[in-house]
Amino acid sequence: MSIVTIRNVEFINNPARFSDVYQFRVTFECIAPLKDDLEWKLIFVSCPEKEDLDQELDDCLVGPIPIGVNSFEFEGSPPDPSKIPPEDVLGVAALILTGSYNDQEFVRVGYYQNTEYDNEEMKESPPVKIGFDRLVRDISAKPRVTRFQIKW
Fold first, then answer.
1. Keywords on this record (predicted)?
2. Which tens digit of pLDDT belongs to each residue from 58-100?
């Protein structure tokens, strides 16, 4: 049984420019006292076959955690364009929010993020050199949630 359950993740700025920070609110429920903080991480995955290209955009500790429904706002840096292979910039990438307690991951919430140009002409005929200042991202509203049993 999990002591902490995610109730909702709400993206505050979606869609947004590719270079904007990620802003979202996480709401979760805690059913028993926890003596340590929860750790949350935001990870950008541009190329699933190459894990070494994953970018941890930010992490934060949340605590102490009272019993009941809790929420916090999380702000994560945008991905570093220099660490994304050019062929993986446009189209679908993954955004993963993880929750851990005492270095044990208890939840992973994955979203698809679509990145494209901000006008039809560039969408139809993308420039050879990527114009990051013209890119917009849109995060899907339907996450994939994976829960893990841990020792609380």
1. Chaperone, Nucleus, Transcription, Transcription regulation
2. 999 999 999 999 999 999 999 999 999 999 999 999 999 999 9
Q: Does any domain span residue 151?
A: no
Q: pLDDT digit string (tens) for 27-62? A: 999 999 999 999 999 999 999 889 999 999 999 999
- Calpha distance 105→125 (Å, rounded): 42
Going from the C-alpha of 125 to that of each of 4, 17, 18, the distances in angstroms are 47, 19, 19
Neighbours of 100 (CB within 10 A): 19
Burial pattern 41-58, b for ≥16 Cβ within 10 A else e, equals: bbbbbbeeeeeebbbebe
Instruction: Please give the model's pTM, rounded to 2 decimal places.
Output: 0.94
* Residue 125: CATH number of its domain: 2.60.40.1490
The two tokens of residue 30 are 């805690």
